[in-house]
Each structure stands twice: as structure tokens, then as C-alpha cells.
Amino acid sequence: SSGKGKRLLGTCTVTRIPECPQESPEDQQRSECMLGYVPVIYYSILLCVGVPVNILTLVALSRLAARTQKALYVYLLALTGADILSQLFIIFVGFLLETAVFHREVPQVLLRSVSMLEFAANHASIWATVPLTIDRYVALCHPLLHRQISYPARARRIIAGVLTLALTSGVPFFWWSDMWRVSSPPGILDSALIWAHVVIIYFLPCGIFLVLNSLIVLRLRRRHRQRSCQGEGGQKVPAGAGRLGKTTAMLLAVTSVFTVLWAPRTTVMLYHLYVASVYRDWRVHLAYDLSNMLAMLNTAVNFFLYCFVSKAFRGVVRDVIFSLSCVLETRP
């Protein structure tokens, strides 16, 4: 049977009746989808849960940003907005509409345009976390400098620049080849795009997260040792010195979850490039589908991380839900 692949997700689709009774040798060698309707159900649930949850996160963070005037919430707002774009372009437009609903061939130009938008949204979602990480590093390791340079207006300019670069980086992926449908081995352009993608979405941001988070943890440990020495010497210790703050804990949680959820997809893409093709090996096909499902989960988990770490965020979410319920009750 034949079906349509997905450019960024690359996942299997609903089986349909072949238009031609005779399959070509290439079709006979194509790897089968082992998950059936599971991806359709999974992405539908992820979309139905993830988008409302991210909208709720957006409203709560907007209230916190207006209340506190902290640059932190500007960065978190940008991250949440980019996650919503990823869910709409990659899951809704790219997968559910393009492959699971239409059930027919889509014009190549439209496919490539959607692919470009998917990669742009994906890159924006990931790189929105980088300024947040840098801001936390400066706040903990260079507090005096942080007071001078960290304010909402500057954060908005930084986010605008980062998102512009991230969206522009999606343009070359207009020529991205669909791993599930292309039977030929990856060429020079395919290899260049795959490497560019894994560097942009994983190796480079994870490298930044690893270095800066390590420096943050080392600084906190050093402060903790100094606090212990001062306590033993009878000196007064500043409150909270050496402790892991809520904001830092939130940052470490967000970056750690991203690193874990995106690692399988990065591994499978490089395996496809150098070892076995998604098109021909059902095991690689299955691993690719599962790794994409894990990666897309990253767009919906931040709300729960914020609720777990931040009491202030939980309080605002509770107020938003209460206000919404009151509005609904007053309607005739």
C-alpha cells in the first residue's frame, strides 16, 4: 500500500487503497508502518491538550510579566509562543491535515513551503530557550551586570532578533527530502541539510545549555561551600545563598527535558544518513516515528514543569481558570 510521509515528523499515515494494482519494485522494498493509527491518535491528543495548555501558559506568563516587569517572563512568553507555532505548523498543518485527512497528493511547492514553515517554527521553539539560559547565567554569575542589562524592553529586542534568525534558518529546508518517501540514498544536499538541522536543533543549543548550566551549578556549589564555611565560623550568612532558586530550577528542568526528548530523533536521523534508510528498513522507520513522537512532546510539557517548580505560576494559573469559569457561568 502507499501513503504520504511527513517532512519534519516523517511519521506513517493512514493506509489507503493503491491507485495502481501493480506495485513497483521500489514500492515493494518500502518499509512498512508498524504503528498504524497510533500516530494519528497520539498527535490529535497532543494537539488537543497542548494548544489549550500553552494558551493558558501564555495568559499566566503575560500576567506575571505585567506584574513583575522581569525579563525572565518575556523569554518564557517567547518560548511558549514558539511552541504553539510548532504545534500548529508541524502537527496540525503538516501531519494531521496534509497526511491523515486529505488522503491525496499535495502539490510539491505547497509541500516544500509547509516544510520550510515547520523547520522555522521548530528552530524558533528551541532557540527561544537560549536567551533565557544566558540571562540566568548572567544573573547568577554576574549579578551587577545583570541589573544593568536585563529588563523587558531589551529582552523583547533580543527575542525579536533570535526569532528572526530562527525563522530565516528555515528557508534552506524548502529543499528538504521526505525520508519516508524518497527511495534513493541521501545525496550531498540531503546530507548538508540533515547535518545543518541536527546542529541547529540539537548539538549547538545543547552545547550552550551544557556549558552555561554547568557554570551555573559550579557557581551555586561554590556559594554553598562559602556559606558552610561562614556558618562554621559564626558569620552571618545571607538568606538563600547557595540555594537553587525557582527560576534556575525551572531553567534546568526545561533544558534537561529538551535534551532527553530530542536525543532519540537526532540519533535516528544520523543513523538514517550513514547506516540504514528509513525508506527501506522498518526498524529505522519505527524508531523514527517513535522519536518524532517524543520530540513533539517537548512542545506541551513546559506548563507542567512551571506548575511543579513555581508557586507564583500555579497561583496565577488558578486565578486565570477561576476568572474563566466565572465568565462562563455569567453567560446566559
TrEMBL record:
One of its GO terms (molecular function) is G protein-coupled receptor activity. The chain crosses the membrane at residues 40-61, 73-97, 109-134, 155-175, 195-218, 251-274, 286-309. Residues 53-306 form the G-protein coupled receptors family 1 profile domain. GO terms for cellular component: plasma membrane. The keyword Cell cycle does not apply. Coiled coil: none annotated. Keywords: Cell membrane, G-protein coupled receptor, Membrane, Receptor, Transducer, Transmembrane, Transmembrane helix. It is a multi-pass membrane protein. PROSITE patterns: G_PROTEIN_RECEP_F1_2 (PS50262). It is found in: Cell membrane. Its main location: membrane. PANTHER family: G-PROTEIN COUPLED RECEPTOR 142-RELATED, G_PROTEIN_RECEP_F1_2 DOMAIN-CONTAINING PROTEIN. This is G-protein coupled receptors family 1 profile domain-containing protein. It comes from Electrophorus electricus. The gene is GPR142.
